[in-house]
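Helix-turn-helix domain-containing protein
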Amino acid sequence: MLNIYGQNMRPHKALDAIINATSAYEVKTLKKWQKISTKECEYIHIILEGNVEFRRESDELCVFSLRGHCIFGIASIYHKATHMYGLVRDKTVVRSIRKEEFLELITQQHLWPELSEVMAWYICLMSKRDDLLVARSAYSVVREFLLEINELIVNQQRDINVYDYIQEYTNLARSTIIKILSDLKKGRYIVVEKGRLLNITTLPERY
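Structure:
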């Protein structure tokens, strides 16, 4: 339930304060599939609207995705953090600011408490991800993602291929995902047609 967890935990007031303080900087619109890179570690990227997936450079694994306000590149303020990039999934508006200017602005505007709240939000997201994925059975992972997919379909009218979605966020082999979903279909716990989740009942805790 990582994406929904991230949306629910979002520190709106802190993000709004930082966004308002950076309003003098120009914005640019990115199209679907464009990348937001951290390779040069020179910029902080403030996402004003849109949907961005945050992926590992090493294997393209999607760590989490966020829709709406967020800040990308905070780690590069103090470290050369180049292991992640953002992948735009629909039209996205972003404001990119040199990190030295961003730091100066945060200090002048006394926004360190707000920035700390945003950083704490990311720590919570990564801790939740570990809770969902680390030392868990393949079935437990698939179960969590099925529940998230269902909630995204119901609440955000998302069009999601369950096989692709689960594989993008985990290191599970596609054959493992197919086997688990096939068994759940046989048990009439889910209805999946052409990769789309059409119905879900109470999923068993154990496989």
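Residues 2-133 form a domain with the Jelly Rolls fold (CATH 2.60.120.10).
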